[in-house]
Amino acid sequence: MRQIYENYTKEDFEVWKILFDRQMRQYPTHASGAFLDGLKIAKFETGLIPDFKETNQILLDTTGWQLAVVPGIVPDYTFFELMANKRFPATTWLRKMKELDYLEEPDMFHDVFAHVPLLTNQHFVDFLEELSKIGLNYVGNAYAIELLSRVYWFTVEFGLIQEAVGQRIYGAGILSSAGETKFSLSEEPPKHTFSIQHMLDTPYQKDKFQTQYFVIESYEQLYESIPEIKALLEEKLETVDV
Length: 242
What we know:
Blueprint: H1 10-24, H2 27-30, H3 33-42, H4 52-62, E1 66-69, H5 76-84, E2 87-90, H6 108-114, H7 122-137, H8 142-157, E3 160-163, E4 166-169, H9 172-175, H10 178-184, E5 191-193, H11 196-200, E6 213-216, H12 219-224, H13 226-238
């Protein structure tokens, strides 16, 4: 599959601009420094849908990663295999104007605008790659995949990071949502210290704001947690019949 740029409509460009501008008003005080740096590297602009050819060259030159076009949510094996080979699965379609605030399935704004900036951070992509290699070993084991999904969910999609200026967002699921961008850093939801054990023991919820978040100290901490993820996963699998 590939991105067919000439197929984007006027509404697509308008949707991208509205979502882009709305989030950019919040990012300076809500998004992590590495994400903001990545936005500059990616050269995303208001009103201009990214061209995957240009984005892929930037990523390739920066961390060796690229985007791989997919139609939507893909099977576990495809998902993990792509990222284990430094290719991030991304859709090319955009939500409609009537779907600005809620979408059942991730679109290009989520996959590209909210994920690509951190694909320029080496420690972050090293974490993604190694986590995906673990996932490849357990494809077909529903319980193992559920546990790994919790780690992915509470980090890559809905993670927070403690920075000198305070807590900031790096999770793409938050950064692509205007409402959750505000909510996640408010005093309402509890924030937990980064803990793989805690994440593995915590089911997540879809279709609504999260009720709790985990806070990392650095992206190095994410990458350095890989051995612990492997060990705790093996330990949990030994206690159940799968």
